[in-house]
Amino acid sequence: MRITDFSISKRLWLAIMIPLVAALTLASMEFLSSWGSYRQMQTVVKVSENIAAMGELIHVLQGERGHSAGYIGSKGSTDKQPLVTARQSTDAALAKLPDLSDG
What we know:
The protein is an all-alpha fold. The protein is built from 2 helices and no strands. It has one domain (3-96). The longest helix has 66 residues, at 8-73. It is rod-shaped and about 105 Å long.
């Protein structure tokens, strides 16, 4: 069976459909690739926001650690208020930390 055995309308239909199917296939593949990149970028944004919150928590934890070491080193003879303030700052930073259990 040769292409000339087909009617003109079928040949025209094939001449249009084959490139159209190829173009749709390539467009679908490009769309899926772009969608995957978009989802990855959403994950990067979420992770970077979490890293910022963790950095703030680490900073205030180090401050609390320093105040705790100073208070313990003085055997309780220094003012306890800076330690209490540092603990409140730690609690506030911990409350800002997003729930990371959902992945």
